[in-house]
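User: Could you go from structure to sequence for me? I need the amino acid at each position, not a summary. Structure tokens:
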């Protein structure tokens, strides 16, 4: 058996139950991008993030399991027709109904599939590259490493959001907020709400669109970082970029900062997992 966890499972409060099942039975868990952080990235139960690229379900090896439990997963996160095409034996279980008694004990943790290992082989080296402009995996990793307890990174359903979903190494649930579907101003809205609660937050966007502008016109405290490759962003090394974000956050008020990013590594990800679901 394997569990695939989506946004509704997290929002309904089922995360502790799913963690308990995984820890007690050694059942592996795949999360959608909207449920990132259910487990730390290096937890033995974490089998990867699914739904961001065309071949994710195949790389996750879902067709090889006798029973694939979809818990709180919307069709926007994982298309049931695609699972049927792959021959996946899936069933939906409501978050309120998931029960440890229905999961058999394994002798050892579920082996990690290619969804985890093959993508890690591509992304791992990108995290260590110091070249400027920064590549998006390094930009995401720097944020993950610098994020204080309770902090949150929010992104829209676009190019930068794809990279956050694919390469941001989560430590805790709620440290990343990504939309189930495209929603104007999502990242700015979520970041502004977190800031009002006293949390460190940053919105990562592709452009300051009308939705983001509307949020910024009302927000008294918000930091928006635009990831661009059109020459309008500032070319900054890793620490200088983090220092700028922290300084903007500490000053308070609404700020837009632009970061030049080298997105060319997308070709390596596509070679492994197919076309991104979001426009990149």
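Assistant: Here is the amino acid at each position, in order:
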């Amino acid at each position: 058996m394997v569990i695939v966890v989506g946004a509704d499972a997290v929002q309904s409060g089922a995360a502790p139950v799913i963690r308990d099942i995984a820890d007690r039975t050694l059942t592996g868990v795949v999360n959608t991008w909207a449920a990132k952080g259910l487990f730390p990235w290096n937890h033995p139960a974490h089998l990867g993030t699914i739904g961001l690229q065309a071949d994710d379900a195949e790389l996750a090896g879902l067709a090889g399991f006798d029973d694939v439990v979809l818990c709180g997963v919307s069709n926007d996160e994982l298309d049931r027709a695609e699972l049927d095409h792959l021959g996946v034996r899936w069933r939906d279980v409501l978050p309120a109904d998931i029960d440890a008694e229905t999961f058999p004990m394994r002798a050892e943790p579920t082996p990690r599939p290619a969804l985890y290992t093959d993508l890690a082989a591509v992304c791992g080296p990108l995290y260590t590259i110091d070249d400027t402009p920064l590549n998006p995996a390094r930009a995401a990793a720097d944020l993950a490493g610098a994020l204080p307890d309770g902090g949150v990174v929010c992104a829209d359903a676009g190019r930068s959001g794809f990279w956050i979903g694919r390469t941001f190494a989560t430590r805790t649930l709620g440290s990343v907020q990504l939309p189930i579907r495209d929603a104007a101003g999502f990242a700015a809205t979520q970041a502004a709400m977190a800031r009002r609660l006293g949390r460190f937050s940053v919105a990562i966007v592709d452009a300051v669109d009308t939705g983001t502008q509307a949020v910024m016109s009302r927000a008294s405290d918000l930091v928006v970082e635009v990831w661009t490759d059109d020459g309008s962003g500032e070319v900054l090394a890793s620490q200088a970029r983090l220092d700028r974000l922290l300084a903007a956050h500490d000053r308070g008020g609404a700020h837009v900062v632009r970061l030049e990013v080298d997105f060319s590594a997308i070709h390596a990800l596509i070679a492994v997992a197919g076309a991104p679901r979001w426009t990149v």
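One structural detail worth keeping in mind: The CA atoms of residues 135 and 265 lie 7 Å apart.
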